[in-house]
């Protein structure tokens, strides 16, 4: 699980760098990336992604042949839901 731990740390740093407001709000309410990102990385996003989207993501992942792609993809997912996540606290 060393690679999983590395991906989670990398994801946390990417989120903090690119979306500090989102990262900080989640941390303040005790929502760690370990809670929501672990299933994404273990299942390569299959745990909560519609099949049609999942197949496109897997195509990109295989095409790139780069493990670091997954944390960037996770940040993109978080960014796409940023407004909803930030509004959820209010």
Question: Layout of helices and strands, plus pairs?
Answer:
Elements: H1 2-18, H2 20-28, H3 33-42, H4 51-64, H5 69-80, H6 82-89
Supply database-style keywords:
single chain, 90 residues, mainly alpha, 6 helices, 78% helix
Average per-residue pLDDT, rounded, comes to 92
Secondary-structure class: mainly alpha
| Overall radius of gyration | 13 Å
Share in helix: over 70%
Q: Label the overall shape.
A: globular
Order of helices and strands: HHHHHH
- Main beta sheet: none
Number of discrete helical segments: 6
Quaternary class: single chain
Number of strands: 0
Give the CA-CA distance, first to last residue: 36 Å
Beta content: under 5%
Unreliable stretches (pLDDT < 50, length at least 5) are: none
Short synopsis of the structure:
With 90 residues, the protein is an all-alpha fold. It has six helices and no strands. The longest helix has 17 residues, at 2-18.
Task: Write structural notes for this entry.
- This protein has 90 residues and is an all-alpha fold.
- The chain is built from six helices and no strands.
- It has helices spanning 2-18, 20-28, 33-42, 51-64, 69-80, 82-89.
- The longest helix is centred in the N-terminal third of the chain and has 17 residues, at 2-18.
- The mean pLDDT is 92.
């Amino acid at each position: 699980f060393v690679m999983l731990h590395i991906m989670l740390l990398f994801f946390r740093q990417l989120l903090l760098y690119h979306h500090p407001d989102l990262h900080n709000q989640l941390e303040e309410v005790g929502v760690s990336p370990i809670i929501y990102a672990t299933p994404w990385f273990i299942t390569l996003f299959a745990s909560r992604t519609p099949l049609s989207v999942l197949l496109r993501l897997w195509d990109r992942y295989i095409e790139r042949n780069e493990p670091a792609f997954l944390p960037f993809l996770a940040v993109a997912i978080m960014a796409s839901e940023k407004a909803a996540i930030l509004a959820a606290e209010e």
